[in-house]
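Quick start: load a record and inspect it. Here is Tryptophan--tRNA ligase:
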Amino acid sequence: MSVARMLTGDRPTGRLHLGHYVGSIANRVRLHQRYESFFIIADLHMLTTRNTREDIGRVAGNAREMVTDILAAGVDPARATFYLQSAIPEVGDLNTLFQNLVTVPRLERVPSLKDMARDAGKEEMPYGLLGYPVLQAADILCVKGQVVPVGKDNAAHVEVTREIARRFNHLYGEVFPVPETIAAETPTLVGTDGRAKMSKSLGNAIALSADSATVRRAVMGMYTDPNRIRADVPGTVEGNPVFAYHDIFNPDRAQVDDLKERYRAGRVGDVEVKEKLAVALDRFLDPIRERRARIEAEPGLVDQLIFEGTERTRHEVRQTLVEVRRAMGLTSAYTQVRRRAERHRKATATPA
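Running the structure step on this input writes:
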């Protein structure tokens, strides 16, 4: 491969939000021009925590929304391959082979898995969730991904991928690249409630597709300094979600510095700070909204991108699986059986 490959993506559980943007999408927009880029719609990963028929029935719609959000954020469709994970059964074959290259204790040390189980209301760890990093390794290595943009939660998962790639290459010969991670500049974004990272399921998120009125309502309801009961009381900027958002999304540094100075001195109210944040977020989201409107004005475009990307990716994965089976010697076993069976059939055939 002359150009290095990047693999990234999301579970199709709904629209993407500002937390997704700072944690991964900003990196993708920046990097996809440099790498041959595959974007996975990870619906099999979704099944580890959401697997009712209703959840599965929403996959197609959520996939469209997710891809639309990514394109609206600035990813060029001509330089990105979007594909639906469940439409490529060969990934499951690779996952099965990789399961034998990692131990249960190693997977139990991945810190985010217990958090995922807890957030999904699971009292016990499902087998599929424990194997989440192994399936993720299959996703990355099936297209021979060399770089993976990651948020804070997925860094440990990709380390399992790196270990599996090294283990496979040691046992069977060089087939896979050992992928490198590219961390986001802002690993996580606190939610509007100030108590947890931004998450759709917690109701503390601002969607990339949110209109101006929705953004303003969310911002005006944001958590600030709980000890500040009046505007003339000096407030704390550090750890204050409103100022964390200003730092990320407000490019007017002079305005932000002025607000911080007055906030610390008790010379500005929360309302003014929030109103200026709402304006800054609108300015940030306006280009995304405009691109989204152009995409939505062409019905079927996103479906076509997903379909064509899935077909292309399946072709790539089939080639990878042939290499894997050949390197492991799995093809020779059946070839031997087939050849002996053919010789037996010919030897015992009744002459015409």
